[in-house]
Amino acid sequence: MTVTSLPTAHPETAAATPAIRPPTPEQVIAWALRVVGEIARAPFTFYRLRKMMESLGRLPEQIEALTIALDRTTDTLQSTLGRMDGRLEAVQGTFGAVDERVEHLDASVTELSATITNVIGAIPGARRTLRSTR
Predict the structure, then answer these.
(1) 20 φ, ψ to 5°?
(2) Those residues with Cβ within 8 angstroms of residue 120's Cβ, 6 or more apart along the chain or in another chain
(3) Using alpha carbons only, what angle is made at residue 82 by residues 76 and 85, rounded to the nearest 5 degrees?
(4) CA 95 to chain CA mean position, Å
(5) Distance between CA atoms of 113 and 74, rounded to whole angstroms?
(6) Phi and psi, residue 96, nearest 5°
(7) What distance in Å separates the CA atoms of residue 18 and residue 114, rounded to the nearest whole number?
(8) H/E element holding 101?
């Protein structure tokens, strides 16, 4: 077995490549303390994970209950809207009758006005007397 030498890097590439340095003792101690801290927090992390899994286990039941509640609400709204449609049609019919009465009243007032005008025109001197009182 022969050992071959690695190709040498170009001077520009070698200057741009950062050198790999071993960690300092402070960095090693800080890393070890972080690992110990994570191990110390592991029971609480597992507790939270267990609670989350319980919540996820109840999720299908909660979704089913929500679906049933939404179906009931939809049914209630549809039945209420059906009754409201009937009431709105009754109100619309009432306004239709009132509208017909107002139109009839308008026609009666127009006819009465024409009749009074004709009566005043038939009485000699009535127009002059009405104009002078204004």
Answers:
(1) -90, 120
(2) 126, 127, 130
(3) 140
(4) 35
(5) 57
(6) -65, -40
(7) 109
(8) helix 25-122
More confident residue, 16 or 32: 32
What is the 3-state secondary structure of 32-89?
Answer: HHHHHHHHHHHHHHHHHHHHHHHHHHHHHHHHHHHHHHHHHHHHHHHHHHHHHHHHHH
What are 57-86's pLDDT values in tens digits? 999 999 999 999 999 999 898 888 878 888
Cα–Cα distance measured from residue 115 to residue 99, given in angstroms and rounded to the nearest whole number: 24
Question: What is the per-residue pLDDT for 82?
Answer: 79
Per-residue pLDDT reduced to its tens digit, 98-125: 888 999 999 999 999 889 888 888 888 7
- Asked if 126 and 120 touch (Cβ cutoff 8 Å), the reply is yes
Distance CA 130, CA 101 (A): 32
Q: How far is CA 70 from CA 45, 63, 64, 76, in A?
A: 36, 10, 10, 10
Q: Provide CB contacts within 8 A for 126, sequence distance 6+.
A: 120
Handedness of CA 99, 102, 108, 111 (dihedral sign): negative
